[in-house]
Design a protein that fits this description.
Blueprint: H1 7-21, H2 35-45, H3 49-56, H4 60-82, H5 89-103, E1 111-118, E2 137-144, E3 150-155
Antiparallel strand pairs: 1-2, 2-3
Length: 166
């Protein structure tokens, strides 16, 4: 699939985020209606902005402003459904029961994983975002429940993931 989302989700996203990302047409600007498709393609493949600009026939500077705005709108639209940090012991027990029923893993309250998201070297740092793999990145650490829903996310930690406070 071009955007790696199901047709149902692909139809649902514009309904939720279009009012936020839609720009007004003026005499000087015709809003880019492909903004959501460009963002979903970038998120699905990790394509560089130059490649997306060529594929969607728009400017790199347009894409560099468009993608962060659409990402913020998607996060705002889905944050209550996707990320739900349990605050009471009974909620954690429910997650543990789901893990045992679905995956036959007792006493688990989540699955934790991390990813290094490549970035350009920030101008204000020497080696702060330089990782052990030999490139600049922002680390993402996430905890998901038995149904792959995010419980907790930590983005942009400048320590090693193994050295995070308990």
């Amino acid at each position: 699939m071009f955007t790696r989302v199901t047709p149902e989700v692909f139809d649902d996203i514009p309904a939720r985020v279009a009012p936020v990302i839609q720009k007004q047409e003026t005499n000087y600007r015709h809003p880019l209606s492909a903004g959501l498709a460009i963002t979903l393609r970038h998120l699905a493949t990790g394509d560089k902005y130059r490649s997306l600009a060529y594929g969607f026939r728009c400017g790199i500077s347009t894409i560099s402003e468009l993608i962060p705005g659409v990402c913020r709108a998607i996060v705002e639209a889905y944050k209550d459904e996707v990320s739900n940090i349990p605050t009471i012991p009974e909620a954690w027990s429910t997650i543990a029961q789901q893990f045992e029923q679905r995956w036959n893993i007792p006493h688990a309250i989540g699955t934790l994983d991390g990813k290094q998201t490549a970035i350009k070297k920030p101008a204000i740092t020497d080696s702060l975002y330089y990782n052990y793999k030999g490139f600049f990145s922002i680390p993402l650490l996430a905890l998901v429940d038995a149904e792959y829903k995010f419980i907790w996310i930590k983005l942009g930690v400048n320590e090693h993931m193994s050295e995070l406070p308990k």
